[in-house]
Design a protein that fits this description.
There is one protein chain. With about 575 residues, this protein is α+β, with helices and mostly antiparallel strands. The protein has five domains: about 5-80 and about 560-585, no CATH class; about 90-205 and about 535-555, 3-Layer(aba) Sandwich (Rossmann fold); about 210-300 and about 530, Immunoglobulin-like (Sandwich), CATH 2.60.40; about 305-455, Rossmann fold (3-Layer(aba) Sandwich); about 460-525, Immunoglobulin-like (Sandwich). The protein is about 20% helix and about 35% strand. It has ten helices and 35 strands. The strands form nine sheets. Strands 18-17-19-20-26-25-24-22 form an eight-stranded mixed sheet. The model has no long low-confidence stretch (mean pLDDT about 85).
Amino acid sequence: MPFFMSPAALWGLLAISALAAVYLFRRQARDVKVSSLMFFGRRQTPAEGGRRLTVPQTPFILLVEIAILVLLVLAAANPRAITGEKLIPVILILDDSLSMVVNAPDSPKAAALKYIERVVFAAPSTRITMIRAGAQPEVIGRHDMTPAEAATMLVEWRCHAADADLFKALRYVTESFASDVSVLVFTDRPAEKNSEGRMQWLSFGRPLSNVAVTAASRYALGGADRCFVEFTSFAAEPCRLEAEILLPEQNRLIESIDTMLQPGETRRVRFVINETALAVQANIKNDPVTFDNVAWLLPIRRVPLDVAVDISSKLLQQTVTRAIEASGLAKVTGSSSQLLFTSRQTVAADDSLWQFVFKVASQPAAFSGSVSLDKIHPLTAGLPPVRAAWAVDSAVRAEGQVLMSAGTVPLLEVQGRPEQNLTAVFNYTPEYSDLHKSALWPALFYNLLAWRQQFSPGPAAFNFRSGSDIAVSLPPEVERAEILSEDGSSVAEAVGWRRQAVFPGLPPGLYQVRAGAASWRIAVNLCSAKESDLRAAGASGLPELPLPAETMLNFADVRWWFIVPALLLLALHQFLTMHRRSADAAF
């Protein structure tokens, strides 16, 4: 099917009516008196002249003339078409943010899907690549799919992201694809700049007033948990906020909120709960836009680690035990399958056992001054500057990754992988040092215990933001994990690698993570001011031409499809006209 680069020329088809009018009115007959009829072989009414309209005697010529006129007008409209095996490369950038599914089934996503199926997939000879634009661009399916294949992959457009970086997706297209590719962006926000070149920005949203939960956090502090919840108005006018914060398991109200908010105003609520094992729910009761009205804060305290301390130095054993107890992350037991503090390294029978080995020198070398730290590693991140009297074994040589050193002498190093039996080696002689009296000592042990706790079976956290990946550490001998919704249906499944399974972002809600016989509850909250602010949403004009006009320049010029038949019809018309005149002259 050809596309016309100059569709205004199609107005020339109106000339057909003028041709028909001329043809009808020119065929009026009138009588002509002659002296004799002896020279006429037959009596025939003249074809031209007169005051009476007659029925056309040769309608076929009129049809030929109309066909010639139509073909010439179509040729003047500059038709172009795909010829041979050439296909049109088209990339669809799909906004994967949650605002695309607001007010389903009349959501921006539903309108975009209808347009894609009706216009884009109906375009002939296209090869389609679909990119899901969230925090990072992701290709759905594979490159260069047929429209039928792309239609089956549209179910992967989930709209679960808390943000959609469309410009990062456009940069990815620019860097990864040829310059002749056509790009169609589907979103609910108007374009920040006009569509240009081979890119078209198609918007399907509409502005809405909204009140949302834009922040929710919970952290442990001693024997209680501190919580923070933020409500924000994204309405065009002052609006009423009716909300409540409660403990659903006890049906106990913590705080009720009934206040007026100005456009853009925020209401922050801070509170402390002593019931550290209970979930907290924040709920907006009077907002019709429901996708950001609820936030959950589940308990965040993990099961304490079981650690063992087997150190020959009595002073070192006491200081290590105090640091462990002060962290609140572990308890000292007689034996441990998770973490062992020792002064003599052994071969671990359990591949999940971590060891923290103290290299205590019999003849230590003392020094005083600052040491270098690896501030990126989880074990040493956030440690304060170290300046202390320190006694070490100067003969120690590094066998792993050095995290702390003094000159060429390694002070702290790690060996192995954290998902297996990792070993940390600490070069330290306490009787001649005062490092255990500094602020670095408890911070170092807190980092170690928190890092080890991340690799205990269970999710990396219990409260996630929508769009973020969910990492789950698997118990020994378990190879896969599954996420279930509140009604018990399976949402996602992942195979573990190095005893860890990772799930992509989920929409807001409560879920259960199951790995073997173990299970944990997690909450996913939106908490995105950018997604909740729907005042800037809008719709753009939707062209019936599915591809940018520049794409047509690569098509073959097929005016000869119309010019050649027009020339043949002209020759036929000339032949019919001459044949008719010869017949008339014979009589």
